[in-house]
Amino acid sequence: MRKLKAVSTKVQTDDITLTPPPAEPQMIDRRTLKGQTPLLLAVLADHPSCVRRLLRRGADPNIPDRDGETPLHKACEAESPELVSMLLGFGAAVQRRCLQAWTALHEAASRDQRQICRLLLGAGADVDAANIYGITPLFVAAQSGHHKALSFLLSNGADINRQAADGATPLYEACKNGHDSMVALLLSHQADANKATTSGFLPIHIAAQRGHDGIVGVLLSVTSRLLVRRLGVSPLHVAAEHDQVETLQVLIRAGFDVNTPLSAERSALYRDGRRSALFFSVVNNSCEAASALLRAGADPGLDPVSPLLVAAGRGAAAMVRLLAEHGADVNADTPGRPTAFPPLLLLCMKNTSMLRLLLDRGCDAAACFQCEHRADTHLAAKHLSPDQPGIQFCDVLSSLAPGGCAEPVLRVLLDYVENVRLCSRLTELLDAQGWTHIKDRAKAPRSLKHLSRLQIRRQLGVRRLSLMETLPLPRCLVTYLNHLEHLD
User: Fold this and answer.
1) Cβ count near 57 (within 10 Å)
2) Residue 246 forms part of a structural domain
3) Which entry of 225, 303, 405, 411 is 20 to 30 Å from 170 by CA?
4) What is the pLDDT of residue 453?
5) Is residue 51 included in any domain, yes or no?
6) Which is more confident, 303 or 407?
7) Residue 280 lies in domain
């Protein structure tokens, strides 16, 4: 078989200059599944030479990804003035918005890029462009605490008092995030501290809520007290609700009225209808905050529900003592639930130490034995719930007897009453439980020692009794007056 001679296919190119064919438009701007073009990917990778070559070959700088972000957005995000300048030079649309209506200037402001902001504004960017929430680049700079971007935008005419969709201003956001220097800068440019949000909060309210004491102090002189009253909520309410004790004290020293009530509309937002700043502190069981308010003259009787009931219901003895010492009514009624005895006692049936605390502060123990059913046959049902309206005290004790709580409660109450008459329901209970010792103690007349003790306590008064441990009295007398031993 004849061997074939190999034929060379090599092309001589020594004297030929190769030039690549022009790029096909459908290829240079082809997008990934995420909507990203080669140009956008080059920007993300921060490759200026690649970006420049793609732009020179006709890549479209305004094709967005699936989020609506263009290469210019990504260049600002990458904090690259070089890429931004390059894209603008090849016709990037400076006002192009993403799906959230966020512009390139928003991106630059959010990263404190003053140089990029200058490039964008020079290319015609709107300094007050707002996204779908009404947030402008100035708002973003204030929110993020970016001093350079904020100063630059202000010097280029940004609207300092522009409000977002929720009514917040750049000042409000700076206060919210605790940017002291931003607050000072905005106020020096005449930012309005009296523009309220749709929720009725001023910058001082949000600063109080977050516990930014320094900012609260700065805002005091520029906040309208009249507007605060009209809005129906004091910064004191907000500080107390969020247990910002130091802020609370700043506001008290500044002269905010500790007894200013919530407006009816705001009070209705709470099931208990609370109105006072004190009530918020009691709900939080913050004795420090409550003490600051009470020392400043807070009235513990302003709310529909006594804060003392809240404290007693939670077993907060220190709070109960604090409120009682400042005049809280230990015999206050519960709205909508009338009882024949102080309702506070209902909350202490399983806590005899709390029960004694309230009785020592003047809670009416005698009312527990003033049953309306004096006949031999008691008219009330035997198993009434303690919170049933119009309930008698004997019915409460009868329901507690199976749990073993009734006997210690009766023993404590008898220490604080003189001669009482037991109704048929109580007599039936004592006989059924075999509590002859209690029945004997309740018999009239009570001992002279016991009656004398009650008379001495009555003469001393609640306030002196609360200070008895500090008085120069014999130990045995203090023990006697405090019911620490039974002398009848």
Assistant:
1) 14
2) yes
3) 225
4) 87
5) no
6) 303
7) 223-329
Contact assessment for residue 254 and residue 220, using Cβ atoms and an 8 Å cutoff:
yes
- Per-residue pLDDT band for 259 (boundaries 50, 70, 90) equals very high
**What is the average pLDDT score of the chain?**
88
Domain shared by 362 and 291, yes or no: no
Residue by residue, what is the 3-state secondary structure of the chain?
CCCCCCCCCCCCCCCCCCCCCCCCHHHHCCCCCCCCCHHHHHHHCCCHHHHHHHHHCCCCCCCCCCCCCCHHHHHHHCCCHHHHHHHHHCCCCCCCCCCCCCCHHHHHHHCCCHHHHHHHHHCCCCCCCCCCCCCCHHHHHHHHCCHHHHHHHHHCCCCCCCCCCCCCCHHHHHHHCCCHHHHHHHHHCCCCCCCCCCCCCCHHHHHHHHCCHHHHHHHHHHCCHHHHHHHCCCHHHHHHHCCCHHHHHHHHHCCCCCCCCCCHHHHCCCCCCCCCHHHHHHHCCCHHHHHHHHHCCCCCCCCCCCHHHHHHHCCCHHHHHHHHHCCCCCCCCCCCCCCCCCHHHHHHCCCHHHHHHHHHCCCCCHHHHCCCCCCCCCCCCCCCCCCCCCCCHHHHHHHHHHHCCHHHHHHHHHCCCCCCCCCHHHHHHHHHHCCHHHHHHHCCCCCHHHHHHHHHHHHHHHHHHHCHHHCCCCHHHHHHHCCCCCCC
Residues 305 and 382 in one domain: no
Give a yes or no: residue 408 inside a domain: yes
Q: For 160-166, what is the mean pLDDT?
A: 97
Amino acid 378: pLDDT? 60
CA-based end-to-end distance of the chain: 140
Type of residue found at 379: L
pLDDT, tens digit, for every residue of 139-155? 999 999 999 999 999 99
Nearest to 309 by CA among 336, 292, 296: 336
Q: Which two tokens stand for residue 104?
A: 């390139």
Q: Residue 128 carries which side chain, given as an amino acid letter? A: D
Enumerate long-range contacts of 433-438, CB under 8 Å, 24 or more apart: 433/401, 433/406, 433/407, 435/407, 435/410, 438/407, 438/410, 438/411, 438/414
Q: Are residues 374 and 386 in the same domain?
A: yes
> What pLDDT is attached to residue 149?
97
Is residue 8 very low, low, confident or very high in pLDDT (cuts 50, 70, 90)? Answer: very low
For residue 372, pLDDT over 90 is answered with: no
Clarify whether residues 346 and 437 are in a common domain. yes
Amino acid 336: pLDDT: 66
Residue whose C-alpha is closest to residue 411's, from 355, 361, 372, 362: 355
**Total structural domains in the chain?**
3
